[in-house]
Design a protein that fits this description.
mainly beta; twelve-stranded antiparallel barrel; 3 helices
């Protein structure tokens, strides 16, 4: 592990220590999340819940004529399963996660599923509170990701990840995630050069959470400024429903495992279903 990796870990750890000691929500607006709400949901809420955003969208390469080869459907299903009824030591929660991302070439003959990425994991989550308000959390995860294929199309890797997020005010949330890779796939030994070594991002939303904008940067291996960029926007169409209109722009490599070495620039629109309190990134 080089000095850059150590510095990244130290930064996340110092950020999380700051959560525990001094974190506070700047705004006194209506969107503050009460500590009791989070604790009750984690201890007594449903065992199954949404983990990351669940979306279904269709799109193409921007500024080019749509064709059957540069247009497709992408959808993601992501769930978390709580494994304990009460908190564990240090106020942590143990959970399983499962995320599946699918690339579906609906505009080609027979409409093949081009690639499916399976991402199960197990981890500990530690929420932080200040003045009876939720201010962020840290998550330590062991994750596996593969595309379920064999032969030359097989792709897989594992990672131990440490992530954190904090609410700055009722408009702004920041997040970061660093991972130590364990690459077991014979056909993707260079995956860090494309799928990255850490990520960071921001989420901006209106106080009532009707509109949300997000930007995530995934740093690829190397010392130059090479990032995969994900821009997202959602609009909750009704206060009584969890249906949001959704737009996503992906620019970079590593969008899917099968074609992780191929550069993609794609603008997609559709719908997204968001977790009750916060999404993982």
């Amino acid at each position: 592990m080089n000095r850059f990796h150590i510095a990244a870990i130290s930064f996340i750890l110092s950020l999380l220590c700051h959560f525990n000691a001094d974190a506070q929500i700047i705004s006194e607006g209506p969107t503050k999340i009460l500590a009791d709400s989070i604790k009750h949901e984690m201890e007594f809420g449903p065992y199954f819940g949404l983990y990351k955003d669940n979306y279904f969208c269709v799109g193409t390469e921007p500024f080019k004529k749509p064709t059957s080869t540069n247009s497709n459907v992408k959808f993601q299903i992501s769930l978390a399963i709580r494994l304990t009824d009460r908190t564990l030591p240090l106020g942590t929660y143990l959970f399983l996660t499962y995320t599946q991302k699918t690339f579906w070439n609906v505009f080609q003959n027979s409409m093949p599923m081009r690639d499916m990425n399976f991402n199960p994991g197990i981890g500990l989550a530690k929420p932080f509170f200040s003045k009876d308000r939720y201010v962020g959390k840290v998550t330590l995860m062991l994750e596996h990701e593969s595309n379920g294929r064999d032969g030359l199309d097989s792709r897989s890797w594992n990672k131990i990840s440490l992530g954190g997020s904090t609410i700055i005010n009722e408009w702004l949330m920041v997040h970061a995630k660093f991972w130590i890779p364990i690459i077991d796939g014979q056909n993707n030994k260079d995956i860090l050069s494309y799928s990255g070594i850490y990520q960071s991002g921001v989420v901006i939303s209106t106080p009532d959470k009707e509109f949300t904008w997000g930007a995530t940067l995934v740093k690829r291996k190397g010392f130059n400024l090479n990032y995969n960029t994900i821009l997202e926007m959602s609009w909750r169409v009704s206060d009584k429903a969890n249906i949001n209109l959704y737009a996503q722009y992906y620019n970079g490599y590593g969008e899917g495992l099968l074609d992780y070495k191929q550069f993609h620039s794609r603008l997609m629109v559709g719908i997204v279903f968001k977790p009750k309190f916060f999404s993982e990134y």
